[in-house]
Design goal:
Layout lengths: L2 H31 L4 H27 L5 H120 L1
Helix pairs in contact: 1-2, 1-3
């Protein structure tokens, strides 16, 4: 393996070490923001390290056909050390600002949607309900008025109708009683 390839491999692994440090800080910040149960944190930790090793191995395959030597580990450790000494605190501060901005942006978008879409829809919904309730009360008032007019107009005939009904019911009652008696007397004979 040539010296240029070895230098390229060490630089690539140093970059991988710095990127793994950034990934670790990113993962640590998001893990601190979320309130996950311990078993899920363990699973995510394992997945993070498996994913990191897989990414490093893929880069190693691209750079020097996957040959593992001591300078590779030195490059990764050096890159991670430089990142944690020089840029870790600044990156974490930047990440917190990005998270705060994303939260602010999310709340702002929700407020805009609420103001421009949800509130007008609720307003029109309430207006429609009020109009329907008003129309329903007007319809009930009209029907009540018509019912009172109809009762007033038909009141002279109502007494005649009640009298007629009593006569018809009385005759029907007699027919019913006679039929019932006839049926019971026939049963007794049998």
């Amino acid at each position: 393996m040539s010296i240029a390839t070895q230098l390229q491999t060490v630089l690539a692994m140093s970059t991988c070490g710095a990127l793994m440090g950034m990934g670790f800080d990113t993962y640590h910040v998001f893990k601190g923001k979320s309130r996950l149960p311990l078993w899920m944190v363990f699973i995510f930790d394992v997945l993070f390290w498996i994913g990191s090793m897989g990414a490093v191995f893929l880069i190693l395959v691209k750079v020097n056909d996957g040959i593992i030597r001591f300078p590779i580990f030195f490059g990764m450790i050096f890159g991670a050390w430089v990142y944690f000494v020089v840029g870790s605190k600044k990156y974490i501060q930047f990440l917190h600002r990005v998270i705060k901005f994303c939260q602010w942006f999310y709340r702002t978008v929700l407020q805009i949607i609420d103001t421009l879409v949800v509130r007008p829809i609720l307003f029109f919904y309430r207006v429609i309900l009020m109009v329907l309730a008003f129309l329903y009360s007007v319809l009930l008032a009209i029907l009540g008025f018509l019912w009172k007019v109809a009762r007033f107009v038909t009141s002279p005939f109502a007494r005649w109708g009640q009298h007629l009904g009593k006569k018809m019911f009385g005759k029907t009652k007699g027919i019913w009683t006679n039929g019932k008696n006839w049926f019971h007397s026939k049963r007794k004979r049998d």
